[in-house]
Amino acid sequence: MSSRPTIIINRLDAERLQRLIDAASDKDLAVAESLEAELERGEVVDPEQIPADVVSMNSQVQFTDLGRSRQLVRTLVYPRSLAESADGLSVMAPIGAALLGLRVGDVIDWPLPDGSETRLRIDAILWQPEREGQFHR
């Protein structure tokens, strides 16, 4: 992996994600380990300190899969919320884990389960709970 920009994570998200990682099943273990490494290297801040251009949990994100030249819009959610979100992307999916904590303009190289790598760019944060004053969502 060649590109890992600095990431910022909401403290409450980090605590919830750690519980999710600790309870991960064998099939989710690889993503859980990658996500845990991201939590360890990220700057963890209080929800009120999350900049408006950072992908936090429940943010609706416009991003480009640079390998496929494909732009997508997804909402980063916890696995339990997938059914409630028409455009949901689980944080326990490889692409979901990659998006967490990135800023608009950031590009990240991220491993996929098949051993290949993807390259993603954050184009816009269309909606973010912290920006809307929803600090405990």
TrEMBL record:
InterPro entries: GreA/GreB_C_sf, Rnk_N, Tscrpt_elong_fac_GreA/B_C, Tscrpt_elong_fac_GreA/B_fam
Pfam family, one: Rnk_N
GO biological process: DNA-templated transcription elongation; regulation of DNA-templated transcription elongation
Keywords: Kinase, Transferase
Superkingdom of this protein's organism: Bacteria
Transcription elongation factor GreA/GreB C-terminal domain ranges (all copies): 51-125
GO MF term list: DNA binding; kinase activity; RNA polymerase binding
Name used for this protein in its record: Regulator of nucleoside diphosphate kinase
Key word Transferase present: yes
Domain Regulator of nucleoside diphosphate kinase N-terminal: residue ranges: 5-45
Entry-linked NCBIfam families: PRK05753.1 (NF004396)
